[in-house]
Amino acid sequence: MARSDPPPTGDAPEPRPTGASRRPSRRGLGAAVLLVAATVAVVLVAQQALRLLPDSLNPFEEETRDRSGPVLLQSIRDLSRYEAASGSFQVIVDLEKDARFLPDAVRGRRTLFIGQGSVDAYIDFSRMGSGAIAVNADRTAATVRLPRAQLAAPALDVERSRVFAVERGLLDRVGDFFSRNPADQRQLYVLASQKIQQAAAQSGLRERAEQNARLMLENMLRTLGFTTVTVRLAAQ
User: Fold this and answer.
1) How far apart are CA 74 and CA 168, in angstroms?
2) Which of 80, 79, 83, 105 is nearest to 168 (CA)?
3) From the first residue on, what is the mean pLDDT of each consecutive set of 10 residues in the chain (236 residues)?
4) What is d(CA 59, CA 116) in angstroms, rounded to the nearest whole number?
């Protein structure tokens, strides 16, 4: 009669998980995060080190050459306006960009920009009709109907306007390092021009231009022999 083997003693070995049920270990995830952080740190340190090198030793230093062609005159037009006043303005633009779900230290940028510019106020004489100037029979009195002053577009001084402070998150610093144009200031210039235009409209610059134009016309007509000169502004 055949003998049967004795039953196995102790705990049976547990089955090993198949490839579909395996999960990444915490140690592997931590190593990946450390590798990404180390890479970013090396890039930032290299960026700062390259900036400290002299231009002749920095392999990434840009060299600027002006290869522009000659300036072409496209058109000439006659001006019929009198520049009666000009105002100089300064504005500080505080522009902040951030991500909705990320802290500013990771993704965000805050830029402080000083804008210097001027706005001219002028009288457009082309808007004066044929009856804008009336003279009496003996040419001793003249009445002038003057159009209202207007404001020209702001002229931003690019040499005096500048960025004086920038705060950037970690991702923005890395992006600027690899960007061809990290200091794109077009939006800053547009905002500064808009704010200067709004300030000029509320500064009384147009009223000053109308006063200067009135005085200029009165003096000019008196030198032509008119003893009584009346300058009236058109309705708004």
Assistant:
1) 43
2) 105
3) 52 52 58 69 65 59 78 81 93 76 58 92 89 89 93 93 74 51 73 95 94 93 91 83
4) 35
